[in-house]
Amino acid sequence: MIRKKKVAALCKKFGRLYVVTSANGVQWIGYGTTFYKMEGMPQMKPVEYAAAFDFSEKDINDSIIEDYGSLGDLTNDDCAEEIIVDGEPSAFVYKGETYYCYAVQGRAVIIPAAQLAPIVENEYTNFCIRETSNKKTVLCVKQGLCAEAIIGTMTWNKEHTDKIKNELCDIINAVQCNYDAMQSDDLTGSEYIMSLLDDKEESEE
Q1: Which of 12, 16, 40, 58 has the most CB atoms lying inside 10 A of its own CB?
Q2: Which pTM value belongs to this model?
Q3: Using an 8 Å Cβ cutoff, are 50 and 17 in contact?
């Protein structure tokens, strides 16, 4: 089951509302990298979806609203090449945004947590990995045997990885320095925190 208001919010956020009509007539709504099945809704044109999603005149002027074409086999319930995702993802926060990382056959598959907001998860929800025609990895969310969302994954290059490592090292080093200072001054944890507050007040004066 898909929370359609959450889909609308994402389309507004990214300024794109694309409509894909699958071979069986079911339409999918998304913003280019991610699409959600609109099962149970009548077939509509993109501008009609914008109206149904309460797009304001400003939203419409600021957005690309159009038919997207085909997603090929990605929206099929069955996909011979899909890989089942086992286990829970790891969560991490980067620049204020939460991400989920799924471990799949020795590789990390990362998606922004916000892209799962429209999904109503239950005991029948399962995840699998599929590949697009140009070899891009997507996360397919299924309810039982039925696909209901196709979510684009993120590619983290060496620059991203090194940057995160450096930021973590800075945090660890800062904590270690503070701990060493506390030990050298023979202060308890609470006394050390109070000393930091005293230093801050003196600097502000």
Answers
A1: 12
A2: 0.74
A3: yes
